[in-house]
Each structure stands twice: as C-alpha cells, then as structure tokens.
C-alpha cells in the first residue's frame, strides 16, 4: 500500500455528498472511481497483515483468494445490475491491464533506473505457462460457440467454470502444499506485521464497507456517464474498472521493479492475471447462475484477440529472464494501441 | 506394449459374434473399440521387434512409418465409407490427444512419483518446432479457403500434402542419416529383441489382420451409434478413434514418465503428433484422391482452434525442460474443456 | 552487395527500350523486376559505405532508415497509383519473405556446410520480441475493424501508425544510445570503407535514380500483367515485389550463414521485418494521408494469418539458439505452402 494514495480518500465524502444531492452522475462516477483506488489498497494491505498472523498456509490462501477483492466487489454489483457485457469486459481488461500496463510500467520505470534487470526464468516460465493454460480454458467457450444467443452457452460456461475452479484449487494445493518451496510469495515486503491483529481486521472491515458503497455508486452511474460522455460501456469495462480496481496492487509491482526486484513484479502481474482467469471469472459465472443473471463466457472477438495477444506477448517477453526500458515501452505501446482500438469499436 | 491390456483381446470374438448376429450395432461399436486397443499395441510391439533385426536405419524407417498404423487403418476404412468429416476430426483428435491427454497423463502420474522431472530442452525444442511447422502447413488450406465448397480446395490440398510429405521425407533423412546422433529413438525399451524374427512377423500379420476386421466393424457401426446414442460423428472422430487407435502407444509414454524417462515420454507424444501432420494426413489426402473420395484439408474452425492451442500450449510447457504434476493436470484440464466443447458443438 | 548480380544491370537499358517502344508490358514488368535487384543492392552498399564515414551513431541511423529504401520507393509509386491492396500485400510479403524465405535459405545453405550452427540466444530473443510487438501493433486495426469500409479505419490507422513510429524512434534511441553495446550492427562486413566518400554518394544517387525509374515502369505494368498472365495483384504484392526489393539484402544474409555467422544472418532477417512493421508501414500510412490515397492498416484475413504464423514460427525456431538444414527446409516449406495458397485465393 502506497501512502501517497491517501489524499484520494477525500473522494469518499465528496462522492457521498454528490450521491445524496442526486445531481451530476458524471461527478459521482469520477469520485467513486478515485475513492476505490486507495480503498482497494487498504483492503490488500490489511489482508497481507492478517495473512502474517494466521501463518503461511492459511495466509497464502487468504492472499490468493482476496488479492482481487476490490475488483470482485465492483463486478458483483455490475452483475447484479445485469451489466453482463461490462463484467466480461472487465475480466478482459484486468488480464491485459496486468500483463501489458502494469508489467510495461514496471519494466519501463525499473529500466530507467537499472540498465538491465533480470529475473528467474524458471519461475517466470512456470507462472507464464499457468497463465496460458488458464486463459486457454477461459476462452474456449467463446471460440466454440461464437454467437451470443447460443443455447449451449450456459451449460458449457458452467462446465468450463467448474474445471477452471478445480485447476485453481489444484494450483493452491501445488503452491501451498506439495511444492511450497518453489513459491515464496512476496516475503520481501511483509516479513513482520506493521499493524496489530485487531487493527488489521478493523481496516479490512472499514475498507470493504466503503468499497461496497462506492462500487454501488460507480455501477449506478455507468449508464448516465455512457450517455453524457459518449464513451462505451465496453471502454469503461475494459479500461476504467480494471485500472481503479487494481491501482494499489499495480503501484506495488512498479515499486518493486524500481527496487530491482523484478521477480516480485512479474509474480504480481502474471499471478494476478492468472487468478482472474482461474478464480474470479468462474466465481462470477457461478454467482451469476445463482443470482439469475446468467453470465456466460462468450467473450467478443475483440476481447478474445486482446486476451490472446496480451498473453503471448508476455510469454515471449518473460522467456529470456531479462528486461529493459524498451521492452516496457513496447508493452505500453501494445496497451495503448489496444485501448485506442476499443475507443473506435 | 503393456501386458494388462491382454484381457481386452476377449473383445475380438465377442465383436465377431455380435457382427454375425446382426443385432446391436452399439455393442459392435464398443467391442470393436475395445479390441483395437490391445491389437494396435501388438502391431507396435511387433514393428519395434522387427526394427531391431533389420538394423537401425531401416528399423528407424519402419518405426517412423508404421507408428500410427492402427489409426491409419481405421481412417482408411472411414475414408472408403465416405466419412470425410470423421477422418478430418480424427486427425485433429490425434494431434491434441497426443499433446494434451498423453503428455498430461504422463506429467501428472510421473509428477506424483517424482516431485520434479526434467528433460533435454534442446531435444524438446527441436521436436516442438518440427511439430509447429508441420501443423502450420496442415492448417494453411483451411485458413485460406474457409468455405467447405471451395473449388480450389482439392488442388491446394494436394499441393500442400505433397510439400508436407516432402518435409516428412527430409525429416527422415535428417534423423536417420545426416543427424542420426541427435535422435536416439527409444533405445531404452528395445535394446535386445524379446521375440524371434518369425514370431515378430507372425504377430504383426495376425494383429494387422484383426485390426482390419475390427476397423471395418467400427466404421460400419458409426452411423447407427450416432443415431442411437445422440453423440455426433465429430465427437467419435475427435475423441473416440484417436484414443483407441493410440492407447497402447500412450500407455508406453505414461510408463516411461513413471520411470522418470520424460525425454522418451515427450518424444512419443510430440513425435506422434508430428507424424500425424506430416505423414498420415498427406497420405490420406493422396489415398482419398485415388479412391475417389476427395479428402481436402479444410478443417472446421473448431478443429483449427484446438490444433493451434494444443500445439502452442505444448510448446510453452516443454520449453523450460521441467515438468510437475500441476502441469500435467493443466494439460488434462485443457483436454477436458476441449472435449466438453465438442460435446456442445 | 554481391558481385554476381551485376549482369542483371543489363536489364536497365532493355527495360527503357521496351518502355519507349510501348509494346509488351509483360516484358517491361520482368525487366523492371530484374533491374531492381542489383540496383537495390548498390543502394544498400552505398548506404553502408557512407555510414562508415559519418561515424557509428549517424551511420547506424542511416542504415536503419534506408535499409528498405528500394522497397519503400516501389511501394510509394504503387501508393501514388492508388494500388492500396498491392501496398498492403507487399508489407505482408516483406515480413514473411524475410522471416521464412531468407531465414529458411540461410539455415538451409548454412546447414549444408556446417552440421550445427549456433547463435546468441539472448540477442535473437530480443530481436524476436521486438518483432512480435511490432507485428502486434501493426495488425490490431485489422483485427478490430474487420470490414473494409469501416469509417473508423482511417483515424485508427493513423493513431496506430503514430504509436508504431514512436516505438521505432525509441528503439533507435535504445540501440544507438542507451544500449548501444548490445547491438553491434554487421561490423564484420564493413569495418573499413572500400569506396571513397564521393564514390559512395555518386553510387547512391545513380542507383536511387534508376530505382525510381524502374519502380515507375514496374507499377505501370502491374495492371496489364495481371490481365495477361492471370495472376492476381495480391500475388505480385505478396511474393514478387518483396523478393526483388530485398534480393540483394537477402543474399547478404545467406552469405553470412554460409560463413557460419548466423547472428548477422538472423539480425538482417528479423531486423528487416521489424523495420517494415515499425517504420515502412507507418510511413506509408502518413504518406498516403498527405497524398490523398488513404492507406489504412486493414489487412485481409489471409494476410493476418501469414503475418502471425510467420512471426510465431520464427520466434520458436530462433529460441533455442541453434539451427540446422532441416529447420531451413521447414521454413522454406512454410513459405512455399503460403505462396501456393496465395495463388489459389
């Protein structure tokens, strides 16, 4: 959690005031977005603190499960509101945001400070192949059933979600039990707790409470914002929600790169994308099923393309165990080109 | 060849009896399937034995050419019966079956026994790039001519088949002549013969004779089975035929993984897929041309996708020279998701 | 520059005579094609000589910018004549020609002389990931806007061209300034100049003058050649123009491979493809905009496929740092299959 995000907390009272006044949904949207950035940071920090108290195994499980909690809360509200395309777009956007934007910024800023940075190729390779497999499973339904009113979409999506979730559980068994020596999750930044157990729990509860409120503000203002500003729901889902939901985590990745700890940087970026594909997406499919908002995994052609390209580029970039500022700039260029294309769709 | 497959030989007399009685094509289908599993095993074992007698060069040629003999016989009968979609589906299914199912099972079961398994990265890389190129050539006609009634499909498919076959011959020259030191084909399991020359020839002839009979039973019962069970021809072609046609070879790959000989395991799985693309598929195109059953290489979009994904996943997985049980589980999950999708197509 | 290309210079007077006589556009087309081969070689050689005189930094910039000058001139004339599909096809053809044809020939002929050839994996990996990113950016507009009359095609293409050009400038900063120790451009063949400064300039001017004339001949005879010979504009753009525009450079790559200098060979082939994507293509988009011939980056589905496949194959092949004649043969087979497919489209 980065301290200079604290001023953004001022957006909370403003958003509540704007909400109560009932005017200007555009302002409500922007203040809700701004306030979620530090809140998700506090949720992450509190989870990490609690993880230290409960020991490595349960702690690892906590970190793995709640790593994308803020984004999960936003998408659950979007799901409840029936904004299924926004939900799918935000899954896409989270994956490429982590891979291209976060990794790109990390390699660029890290590369400005250190001429050459290196990381463990074996670990990066393992994270990448896990990501690749997760992404493959995620996009299979869309590839096979490419019309949006296919009657088989729901059962196939549920079946695929089940298999993905099973792989997620197996990967937890792998990383927390049978091969726990391979993964050393971010010890560098969290060896000893800086908050007491009670403090951590209180922060987690309060931050979650406000994230819930701001997510509701955000989701209810999407429709008027789309009408007022002329940007598409797709753009909000692909670009805006993933950035605000992950901003705090992203800044950790960039900070680690600037401390020349590229291994942690890559683990955050690639691991977070994998978790979206193996855990968040299947969970949303199940929740949608029980909430009567049947979310299928039929991504659009554009979404498929950016997911595939983002994954392949990351695989190639991380294969040689080295990075420099130009690779960072190239990842950011790829992200910019894709974001630009989503504006024109 | 694995001895515990022997009981399945009992399916041979049952299938002949069911065939003669003329009842229950569904039972005929299942008994024919079951009997082909050990028979293809005996064909493979006999070929290997003969290969030892005739010396490394001709022997290597024999092993390379008859490695997929059982499956080739089944698909020739399907070709003769005009089941062109089944033939193309079984080419697809063999490639992904070898890459995802066999390699997945090998890495999973091998990984249960050995925490980490490793293999020669350079050899794996060479096999993988050969596979990639073979697959690229194979799918080009479908990518260029994406309608199934394209008049250019036949000449283009014949031309591509010719180039693929030429590459196959060149790859034999490479592995048996100019670079024979690089490839050491499965010496580990076949240093000294266990059968006499006459025994080997007799086993080969008898096994081939029965594979021919059972293939005829299998192909003639596909149509009634499709109607009776409600599964599609595509599913039989993609999932069922490749599994029974390669089951014996597959069990060898898994056994080698459990003996921690991952190099042989990978060579069988990747090499077998490459052979399907470079040798079996072009041969079927030529045979179809002469049999008046013009088989083009216009795979469906679904088939293209699974071929491409299966190949890319294998390339990424085998690039780091290591494997563990989770990678095996991930490959199996990818196979399950694809098989599930073929059920819903 | 290879001396045995000199006899082709005789095609210049013949082409001028054929042009003046006004007969036989087919002969004009062939003589123009033949004469461009040695001319582009002299342009390249003269540029390299001048580069030595002006010092490494400006020289590197010169080599990087004018490396594809002959092809750029041909495509500018095609652009002026409104042959937008030919221009896009030649961008595609240059990329796969460099990757599959040139690299294939280099690995094949080099591999005949040396059983195993090796090259620096790290450098190859860096070139490959740069190529991959360049290609990704290039094809994004086509992937997002897949109809040829999309009103957003022009603004998106201009935006993407701007980002690609920016990455090109950044990559020059990287290779000529911040990381100049990593790249050692072809010193092996150009340590000391063989021509005087004045000679080099004169050769450059004269060769460029004739390339301009022959390019005009070539472009004006495309239409009658298409009608007379029954081959498509697409085929001329994808296969013919890239081969003649790059033949001289290609022969250098092959010669280097035959001297066992695979690093230079790969640098030429992959670097030239990257330059097409990052510099030539965006430049043509900008020129088209100012010339009133709006060139968008909406490549056809076929073009997308061959660009993607050519890039991925090269990435996989160059990943292990080794090559042999079979890999060369496989690249050539992939090129032949694609060329064959373009004949049937």
Automatic annotation (TrEMBL), chains A, B, C:
<keyword id="KW-0406">Ion transport</keyword>
<keyword id="KW-0106">Calcium</keyword>
<feature type="transmembrane region" description="Helical">
    <location>
        <begin position="124"/>
        <end position="144"/>
    </location>
</feature>
<dbReference type="GO" id="GO:0006874">
    <property type="term" value="P:intracellular calcium ion homeostasis"/>
</dbReference>
<dbReference type="InterPro" id="IPR004837">
    <property type="entry name" value="NaCa_Exmemb"/>
</dbReference>
<feature type="transmembrane region" description="Helical">
    <location>
        <begin position="12"/>
        <end position="37"/>
    </location>
</feature>
<dbReference type="GO" id="GO:0012505">
    <property type="term" value="C:endomembrane system"/>
</dbReference>
<dbReference type="Pfam" id="PF01699">
    <property type="entry name" value="Na_Ca_ex"/>
</dbReference>
<keyword id="KW-0812">Transmembrane</keyword>
<keyword id="KW-1133">Transmembrane helix</keyword>
<keyword id="KW-0109">Calcium transport</keyword>
<dbReference type="InterPro" id="IPR004713">
    <property type="entry name" value="CaH_exchang"/>
</dbReference>
<feature type="transmembrane region" description="Helical">
    <location>
        <begin position="91"/>
        <end position="112"/>
    </location>
</feature>
<feature type="transmembrane region" description="Helical">
    <location>
        <begin position="297"/>
        <end position="318"/>
    </location>
</feature>
<dbReference type="InterPro" id="IPR004798">
    <property type="entry name" value="CAX-like"/>
</dbReference>
<feature type="domain" description="Sodium/calcium exchanger membrane region">
    <location>
        <begin position="26"/>
        <end position="176"/>
    </location>
</feature>
<comment type="function">
    <text>Ca(+)/H(+) antiporter that extrudes calcium in exchange for external protons.</text>
</comment>
<feature type="transmembrane region" description="Helical">
    <location>
        <begin position="156"/>
        <end position="177"/>
    </location>
</feature>
<feature type="transmembrane region" description="Helical">
    <location>
        <begin position="58"/>
        <end position="79"/>
    </location>
</feature>
<dbReference type="GO" id="GO:0015369">
    <property type="term" value="F:calcium:proton antiporter activity"/>
</dbReference>
<keyword id="KW-0472">Membrane</keyword>
<feature type="transmembrane region" description="Helical">
    <location>
        <begin position="268"/>
        <end position="291"/>
    </location>
</feature>
<keyword id="KW-0050">Antiport</keyword>
<feature type="transmembrane region" description="Helical">
    <location>
        <begin position="225"/>
        <end position="247"/>
    </location>
</feature>
<comment type="similarity">
    <text>Belongs to the Ca(2+):cation antiporter (CaCA) (TC 2.A.19) family.</text>
</comment>
<feature type="transmembrane region" description="Helical">
    <location>
        <begin position="325"/>
        <end position="344"/>
    </location>
</feature>
<keyword id="KW-0813">Transport</keyword>
<protein>
    <recommendedName>
        <fullName>Ca(2+)/H(+) antiporter</fullName>
    </recommendedName>
</protein>
<feature type="domain" description="Sodium/calcium exchanger membrane region">
    <location>
        <begin position="200"/>
        <end position="343"/>
    </location>
</feature>
<dbReference type="GO" id="GO:0016020">
    <property type="term" value="C:membrane"/>
</dbReference>
<dbReference type="InterPro" id="IPR044880">
    <property type="entry name" value="NCX_ion-bd_dom_sf"/>
</dbReference>
């Amino acid at each position: 959690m980065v301290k200079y995000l604290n001023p953004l907390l001022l957006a909370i009272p403003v958003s509540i005031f704007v909400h109560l006044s009932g005017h200007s949904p555009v302002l409500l949207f922007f203040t809700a977005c701004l306030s979620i950035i530090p809140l998700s940071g506090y949720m992450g920090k509190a989870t990490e603190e609690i993880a230290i108290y409960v020991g490595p195994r349960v702690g690892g499980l906590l970190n793995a499960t709640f790593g994308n909690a803020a984004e999960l809360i936003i998408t659950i509200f979007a799901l409840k509101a029936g904004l299924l395309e926004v939900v799918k777009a935000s899954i896409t956007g989270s994956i490429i945001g982590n891979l291209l934007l976060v990794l790109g910024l990390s390699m660029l800023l890290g590369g400005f400070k250190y001429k050459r940075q290196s990381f463990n190729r074996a670990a990066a390779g393992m994270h990448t192949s896990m990501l690749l497999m997760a992404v493959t499973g995620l996009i299979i339904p869309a590839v096979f059933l490419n019309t949006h009113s296919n009657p088989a979409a729901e059962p196939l999506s549920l079946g695929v979600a089940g298999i993905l979730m099973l792989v997620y559980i197996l990967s937890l068994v792998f990383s927390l039990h049978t091969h726990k020596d391979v993964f050393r999750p971010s010890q560098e930044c969290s060896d000893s707790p800086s908050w007491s157990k009670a403090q951590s729990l209180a922060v987690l509860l309060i931050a979650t409470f406000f994230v819930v409120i701001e997510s509701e503000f955000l989701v209810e203002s999407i429709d008027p914002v789309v009408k007022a500003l002329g940007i598409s729901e797709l753009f909000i889902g692909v670009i805006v929600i993933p950035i605000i939901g992950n901003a705090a985590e992203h800044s950790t990745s960039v900070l680690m790169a600037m401390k020349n700890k590229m291994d942690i940087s890559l683990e955050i970026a690639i691991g977070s994308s994998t978790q979206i594909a193996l855990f968040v997406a299947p969970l949303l499919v199940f929740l949608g099923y029980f909430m009567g908002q049947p979310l299928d995994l039929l991504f659009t052609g554009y979404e498929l393309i950016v997911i595939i390209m983002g994954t392949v580029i990351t695989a190639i970039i991380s294969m040689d165990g080295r990075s420099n500022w130009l690779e960072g700039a190239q990842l950011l260029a790829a992200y910019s080109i894709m974001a630009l294309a989503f504006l024109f769709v």
